[in-house]
């Protein structure tokens, strides 16, 4: 028996990986985040699969479901939105499964920031403009940020920032980043990336807060801040340069 943590992708049901879909199609138990995972994905489950919506379950209750399946010798598909490697609360589940001696594997998925970049039709790393992407969030009452990971500190790098779970606090985002990026720095907000109700806002640090409030965005969105969003005049990469010696390994 194995628990499979599966990245369900950013929202569009067809953005799950082939491996993820195959694993889901063979699992007799499926635990899924009902508030985020598209219901169409559950159609991949075999007939008779035990479906458990974890959106209203606490950690103890989720692990209890895994223990029950383990005792019955049944594989579990644990569907998470996006990719399990970031902001997924998978680490605490793995720790509990380790304590119970329950084996697990991870099937990666398409993360929200990648879907947002695709919707924006932008490469987030552009030669000579920006080669670093920081994935982060901001401190909230329930979960504080570790020391040194506040926006004011991260902003000093000038790197492209992708902020998850931050649209509710867009004024704070703007206030903390303005001194480092400037009012004219390009910003984009992508809500419900890859879904039929996707919404894209484009602007600068000077006007993005007003756009977010007017659109009423409070969740399920990423904020992207950085110069590469507006890069047009930049040097071609060395990768495909005609000057590159392709006979050298």
Automatic annotation (TrEMBL):
Domain Tetrapyrrole methylase: 2-208
Taxonomic superkingdom: Bacteria
Keywords: Cobalamin biosynthesis, Methyltransferase, S-adenosyl-L-methionine, Transferase
Recorded metabolic or biological pathway in which this protein acts: Cofactor biosynthesis; adenosylcobalamin biosynthesis
CDD domains attached to this UniProt entry: Precorrin-4_C11-MT (cd11641)
InterPro entries, per database record: 4pyrrol_Mease, 4pyrrol_Methylase_sf, 4pyrrole_Mease_sub1, 4pyrrole_Mease_sub2, Cbl_synth_CobM/CibF, Siro_Cobalamin_biosynth, Uropor_MeTrfase_CS
PANTHER family: COBALT-PRECORRIN-4 C(11)-METHYLTRANSFERASE, SIROHEME SYNTHASE-RELATED
Family: Belongs to the precorrin methyltransferase family.
Protein name (record): Precorrin-4 C(11)-methyltransferase
Organism: Streptomyces polychromogenes
